[in-house]
UniProtKB/TrEMBL annotation:
Domain Quinolinate phosphoribosyl transferase C-terminal per the UniProt entry, residue ranges: 107-272
Protein name, entry field: Probable nicotinate-nucleotide pyrophosphorylase [carboxylating]
The organism of origin for this protein: Salipaludibacillus aurantiacus
Keywords: Glycosyltransferase, Pyridine nucleotide biosynthesis, Transferase
Subunit note: Hexamer formed by 3 homodimers.
Length: 282
């Protein structure tokens, strides 16, 4: 997590929402102090600790108490955190905090469910670059909170030779050769394959990672038998949660799922301002 970038992002998000001031809260509450609690209305896996820590730096007048940590599961009715400070500040920051924590906790929960389907195997669940523009760092962090791993963060992380690269280059072999010539020893080369001939080419050209794209479990298992153990095998392309267990039996090392970040639902969480002091929390 790049905490400097996160702080900058949050400042922009708050600026977008607050503008020149929360006229409703400022008119009603003036200098009143208060407390509020963020309560889960549905189960999930928490992802928001880093956000709260950054909010503390931007709004030192707010005090937060966390009752869950990143990566912890929670049930409906659970009090996730408590906030104390100026009521106007609590209410003006509420929406940005909720939007992010709800979104990220949903991603973490979906990832946790996907990872649970790999129990008893060495297969890892990975995300993709199918993230919300501007939120990639946070959404990929949420995947980690759910027990998954991250694929490349951007086009500059690693070589990933896809179908259009291969079509334009003329062959898998040519594309890998050019990538090897351009890249340094620290940068891995992954190639996406769609048929048996491409699998053979990728192995012969010594790709570091071979992605089996848009294939069923049986086809994947057949191709995995052709790939030496020192080459990492990734399965990708429309894999659903219900298919994970079948794919874990193919011999692949990684299953990447774009839906973790592009289709996860948000967890319902609300902020309740306390009218009188609570003495205990769920």
């Amino acid at each position: 997590m790049n905490r400097f970038l996160l702080k900058q992002q949050l400042a922009d998000f708050f600026s977008e929402d607050i503008g020149y001031g929360d006229i409703t809260s400022n008119a009603i509450f003036k200098d009143e102090q208060g407390e509020g609690v963020f309560v889960a209305k549905a189960p999930g896996v928490f992802c928001g600790e880093e956000i709260i820590n950054a909010v503390k730096e931007l709004y030192p007048e707010l005090g937060f108490t966390l009752f869950v940590r990143d990566g912890e599961s929670f049930s409906a009715g659970k009090t996730l955190l408590k906030v104390k400070g100026p009521v106007t500040c609590i209410l003006s920051t509420e929406r940005v905090i909720l939007n992010l924590v709800q979104r990220l906790s949903g991603i973490a929960a979906m990832t946790h469910e996907a990872v649970s389907r790999t129990a008893g195997t060495q297969v890892k669940i990975s995300d993709t670059r199918k993230t919300t523009p501007g939120l990639r760092m946070l959404e990929k962090y949420a995947v980690r909170c759910g027990g998954g791993i991250n694929h490349r963060f951007g086009l500059d992380d690693a070589f990933l030779i896809k179908d259009n690269h291969i079509a334009r280059a003329g062959s898998v072999t040519t594309a890998i050769k050019k990538a090897k010539q351009a890249g340094g020893h620290m940068v891995k080369i992954e190639v996406e394959v769609e048929n048996t001939d491409q699998v053979k080419e990728a192995v012969a050209a010594e790709a570091d990672v071979i992605m089996l794209d848009n294939c069923g479990p049986q086809q994947a298992a057949d191709w995995c038998k052709m790939i030496p153990s020192h080459i990492t095998v990734e399965i990708s392309g429309g894999v659903t949660i219900s298919q994970i267990e079948a794919f874990t039996q193919t011999g692949a090392d990684v299953i990447s799922i774009g839906a973790l970040t592009h289709s996860a639902g948000s967890v319902d969480i609300s902020l309740d301002i306390l009218v009188k002091e609570r003495t205990s929390y769920v």
